[in-house]
Amino acid sequence: MKSKSPGVNTICTHVGELKDEQYKGAISPLYMSSSYAYENVDVKRYPRYFNTPNQEGLAKKVAALEHCEAGLIFGSGMAAISHTMLAFLRQGDHVVVQKTIYGGAYNFMVEELPKYGISYDFTDGFTETDFRNKIKPNTKVIYVETPSNPLMLITDLEMISGLAKEYGLVSMIDNTFATPINQTPADFGIDIMIHSATKYMGGHSDICAGAVAASEEHIKKIWNVGKNLGGSLSDYTVWLLERSMKTMGIRVKAHNRNARKIARWLNDHELVQKVYYPGLKEHPDHELAKKQMKGYTGMLSFELVSGVDPNKFMGSLSMIKQSMSLAGVESTILSPAKTSHALLSVEERERQGISDGLLRFSIGIENKNDLIADLEHAFREVSSNRLQKSLV
Ligand code: PLP
């Protein structure tokens, strides 16, 4: 019997795959051609038109996962964000942006939008009033990221889509941290889902890509800008990304499981001041996360108690790598103040609650006990160091 709507792992594996009619191979063939026939064809194909066979195939998978009609694949997450923003904003328009967002997206708003005569306001917080207070007569877009990088704060998706409908705005979410495995914002009325596919979609720390999913109408608007700005992805990387996404469902569930256990373990540790993980009951947005997420991701942040040197702690880890980026199968850790949010001013970092002692932990799919052993070793190293200091 044919199932009507395929399950998520079936979507990951099969939706959008290309048939190898010539040799009957099991996987999508890779079409590297940058030149296609133009006479007597339905579609004039060209890589920068986002419509090579591999691009179109993968866009279908992203759209199906996000419960949307259509999608587009980009050269990076920032290309996806910038093209999408510029598709819906023009001179004189205004955008309301959630208080805490990825540092690169923040920089795009602050450094690029004013050049186009587009104004923006960041909210003071995450409540309906915080968003409502910033909406102006010329506001066209409302932009959120949930869970947010790096504090894992949760924004109420129904509240955002409600405001967007009330004021006639286009709602956009950076759904990178959640992935469509854990969160499908279209089900809560959000218009446009954006991804840094460099993260969980790629999942192996070897791809830089972006993706967007939305209605046909919205995607057409983004495409119109995209063909002029030119942020498409090479077909070879599109093909690799398709391969990665086949295992996204099972990978993300393994990340979720590990993170949930390690969040609890860290939460009970005497050298940890605070853990930011929406799967913990202690997280201020836990109930909201439960309502709109199916899993809580492999991402968390934590603060060490004062007196513990975060650099010494990270330097004492052996399996968990100090590394930029996130969401690979291998566990990585970093200081947001020195990396993802380094380009923000000290005042802006403080405003966003990003202290120098905050560590962002991307929990991989290794065995949980091995990760805990690595953390335990690093804690022992910093606590002996702390003891020696207090004896001096
Ligand atoms: N959105 C989030 C939440 C991110 O963490 C990042 C990158 O770290 C981006 C967007 C930008 O993606 P990319 O680096 O693929 O351009």
Rg is 22 Å
**Number of helix segments?**
14
User: Are there runs of 5+ residues with pLDDT below 50, and where?
Assistant: none
Could you tell me the mean pLDDT?
Answer: 95
**How would you sum up the major sheet?**
7 strands, mixed
| Succession of helices and strands | HHEHEHEHEHEHEEHHHEHEHEEHEH
Strand order of the largest sheet: 1-7-6-5-4-2-3
Taking the alpha carbons of the first and last residues, their distance comes to 74 Å
Ligand catalogue: pyridoxal-5'-phosphate
Can you give a write-up of this model?
The chain is an alpha/beta fold. It is built from 14 helices and twelve strands. The strands form two sheets. The chain has a seven-stranded mixed β-sheet with strand order 1-7-6-5-4-2-3, with helices on both faces. It has a five-stranded mixed β-sheet with strand order 8-9-12-11-10. Helix 7 links the parallel strand 5 and strand 6. The structure holds pyridoxal-5'-phosphate. The site of pyridoxal-5'-phosphate has 16 residues, from helix 3 and helix 4.
